[in-house]
Amino acid sequence: MAYETLIVEIEDHVATIKLNRPDALNALNTQLLGELADALADADGNDKVRCIILTGSAKAFAAGADIKEMSEKTFVEMFLSDFFGSETAAICRTRKPIIAAVAGYALGGGCELAMMCDFIIAADNAKFGQPEINLGVLAGIGGTQRLTRFVGKSKSMDMHLTGRFMEAEEAERAGLVSRVVPAKQLMEEAQAAAQKIAEKSQLAAMMVKEAVNRAYEVPLNEGLLFERRLFHSLFNTEDQAEGMAAFMEKRTAQFRDR
Ligand code: CAA
């Protein structure tokens, strides 16, 4: 499918989705988020895709929700359209793993979009922030909830209340990003990680995603039970037999998603 605000490439079982509104530092408007939801649904339903990378430009992953689009809206319009509610719910329904490869600004909705992905690899020039307070509002697509779970109350309050930006190194120390790499190597590193994931059993990879995400939703005992049942269920698959046989035969497993 052709998109106006995205560039999508599929290679070696990895779909790379690049946000592409360079004149607006990839600000998230209704069209972009709608197209992103469609592109992710396409990738999810495409048998050739086993992992997804979401990225932006060297200067900006995304500089937030599109302020120009929002500025004239009223409460009634925002409420009745449930502004960005359906698009973000659709993005979060993606079952295949999504890596956010973040260079430059990931601010407001940009930071929130990165946090909707399964993990974040940051270039050393990445800057994260929730500066909505400078606009007289607050985060609207998950920032107060997700950032707090990533980095804890104190740092989350600091980010949301002062609107300051966090450099990549601080973001890694705080647990917001999984690794920081030199900006030039960002896509190479993201590709290598995606490739590694693509080689696993897709059954196990998708269950990992479900189980880790469950940790945010349910009490520990429920999460542990959920994980244990998923673990048990994989013993009814050919991939479990193949994975364990390959280990014992000292060879690489050939997973077939069965
Ligand atoms: N919305 C719309 N346009 C944006 C934008 C945004 N969030 N961020 C940048 N742009 C546009 C600028 O208006 C500018 O366009 P023009 O050339 O037509 O004026 C272009 O992108 C380049 O931006 P700058 O000239 O400002 O670039 P800079 O390098 O000087 O500054 C920046 C970069 C620090 C990221 C600055 O652009 C900035 O502060 N952007 C806004 C960041 C922000 O407040 N984000 C939160 C948005 S609200 C939100 O996200 C709500 C939510 O949770 C859902």
UniProtKB/TrEMBL annotation:
<dbReference type="InterPro" id="IPR018376">
    <property type="entry name" value="Enoyl-CoA_hyd/isom_CS"/>
</dbReference>
<keyword id="KW-0456">Lyase</keyword>
<dbReference type="GO" id="GO:0004300">
    <property type="term" value="F:enoyl-CoA hydratase activity"/>
</dbReference>
<protein>
    <submittedName>
        <fullName>Enoyl-CoA hydratase</fullName>
        <ecNumber>4.2.1.17</ecNumber>
    </submittedName>
</protein>
<dbReference type="Pfam" id="PF00378">
    <property type="entry name" value="ECH_1"/>
</dbReference>
<dbReference type="InterPro" id="IPR001753">
    <property type="entry name" value="Enoyl-CoA_hydra/iso"/>
</dbReference>
<comment type="similarity">
    <text>Belongs to the enoyl-CoA hydratase/isomerase family.</text>
</comment>
